[in-house]
Amino acid sequence: MTPSPLGRRQQGLLMTGGGALIISPDALLIKVIGLPDAEILVWRGLLTALGFIAIVVARHGRGALAAYRRCGWTGIGVALLFSLSTFGFVLGNQYTRGGNVLMILAGAPLIAALLSRCFLQERLPRRTWLAILACLVGIALIALDDAGVGSWQGNAFALLAATAMAANFTLCRTRQGVDMSPMLTLAGLIVAALAALHGLTGPGLTLPAGDTLGWLLLLCLGLLPLGFTLLQRGPLYLPAAEVGLLMLLEVVVGTLWVWWLLGERPTPAAFAGGALVLGSLLAKGLVDRRVERRQRALGAAQHEPC
Predict the structure, then answer these.
(1) Whole domain around residue 68: which residue ranges?
(2) How far apart are CA 269 and CA 279, in angstroms?
(3) Cα–chain-centroid distance for residue 274?
(4) Smallest Cα–Cα separation from 39: which of 174, 153, 199?
(5) For 99-129, how does the pLDDT look when each residue is reduced to its tens digit (9 = 90+)?
(6) 275: number of Cβ within 10 Å
(7) What is the rounded distance in angstroms from the CA atom of residue 160 to the CA atom of residue 203?
(8) Is residue 154 part of a domain?
(9) pLDDT digits (tens, 9 = 90+) for 3-58
(10) What is the number of structural domains in the chain?
(11) Maximum Cα–Cα distance across the chain
(12) Residue 2 confidence (pLDDT) above 50
């Protein structure tokens, strides 16, 4: 039985919002693990690839290979774009201030909206544009203390990450009904291979031990594969811009994780920014729900017998 449009939308919101919340401890756990960026890239790529494979096999069983084949060349493009966004994020943080990276990444929903408008002719309601602009302001407030003059290379890497993320979600919308999340396996392998190819790991890469290994496995073998699988399925149900918008939950909740467990207290401006992001998403969700209920009521009234 085909779910109703309202049911599909709710499913997309739960998937995307849930995925963003699952990966929200990413920044916290990277701090706790404490490995150099180069080693994190290799282990992140290899372990997430294993996690993605496990999820695909658990979901599809003997049909796992068919799930990969259905993605076709579009899936390869998705994998490449996901890899670019990973490299852009990691290298952006290496070459410029973290606040700059966050503010540039907050532009991903706007980039996705423009790409979808140009290539897919998708129109967004005014409330979505207002929510995007409000969230941009909110993320700017969160990142204000850590923003400043940074290298153009770092800012360019952050812009690459935001654009690749937006293009990834937009590309998924070109194959309606096809789940592209299995191709994140290839993305993980690309990240690990490129990191190793360029000598980022140096000689003698070894698997960490003790608590470091435990946190690494939790993050890269558990949280990231599950969270990104849900996020990558978001475009099956929602416009690319809305998927990018809900991803901003990761920034807000991730900031709270770091404050709660590491004692890095956000500034009053950061609190205000987080409240603005969450408030904008909540307000948009409530308005969307009211509009959808009204549309359902009108549809039911039109189909009532005279």
Answers:
(1) 11-202+213-303
(2) 15
(3) 17
(4) 199
(5) 778 888 888 999 999 999 899 988 888 889 9
(6) 13
(7) 29
(8) yes
(9) 445 578 888 999 999 999 999 998 888 888 888 877 888 899 999 999 999 999 99
(10) 1
(11) 79
(12) no
Question: Which residues neighbour 294 within 8 Å (Cβ) at sequence distance 6 or greater?
Answer: none
202: tokens are: 């140096």
Contact of 16 with 243, CB cutoff 8 Å: yes
If one counts every other C-beta atom within 10 angstroms of the C-beta of residue 149, the result is 8
Within 10 A of 100 (CB to CB), how many other CB atoms are there?
Answer: 23
Q: Is residue 6 part of a domain?
A: no
Torsion sign, CA atoms 110, 112, 118, 122: negative
Model confidence at 65, pLDDT cuts 50, 70, 90, reads very high
Inside any domain, residue 147: yes
Q: Tokens 């359902």 sit at which residue?
A: 296
Place of tokens 């997309």: 12
pTM over 0.70: yes
AA letter at 24: S
* Residue 94 within any structural domain of the chain: yes
